[in-house]
């Protein structure tokens, strides 16, 4: 997988290349680069700017949250039943949506991760390729 995403008025850039994630973070007109190398191919990734986290899924059907400011420490690892096709976060970064290729969409509350599990919020047997939040 190769993916590039811009966040925060195009001041942050997230680059995913197979097993590696690069975050280019612009602070005071200077870029800092964070690199995270994973042991398996990454299927989807997003940047949570205000929580200082990177969320991603892999081919082994796991969901991860990585704190990029504390030596790339994996703060959350949750197993998932299927391979994820797309991750999406609400603007307030309180909830992550995870969609799989069969069209099921799950929600995860980020405010209470110790008690939070993925909850099915939409499901059907069509192929899901992308998701967008709308206000």
Count of separate DSSP helical elements: 0
Unreliably modeled segments: none
Radius of gyration: 14 Å
Structural class: mainly beta
**Biggest beta-sheet profile:** 4 strands, antiparallel
Q: β content, as a range?
A: over 45%
Strand tally is 12
Tell me the strand order in the biggest sheet. Answer: 1-2-3-4
Name the helix and strand elements from N-terminus to C-terminus, one letter apiece: EEEEEEEEEEEE
Q: Give the rounded overall mean pLDDT.
A: 85
Q: Give the CA-CA distance, first to last residue.
A: 29 Å
**Range of helix content:** under 10%
Judging from the principal axes of the Cα atoms, what is the shape?
Answer: globular
Protein model, in words:
The protein has strands spanning 2-7, 12-17, 20-27, 30-37, 42-48, 53-58, 62-67, 73-79, 84-89, 95-100, 105-109, 119-122. With 135 residues, it is mostly beta strands. Helix content is 0%, strand content 56%.
Descriptive labels:
12 strands; mainly beta; single chain; 135 residues; 4-stranded antiparallel sheet
Brief characterization of the structure:
With 135 residues, the chain is an all-beta fold. The protein has no helices and 12 strands.
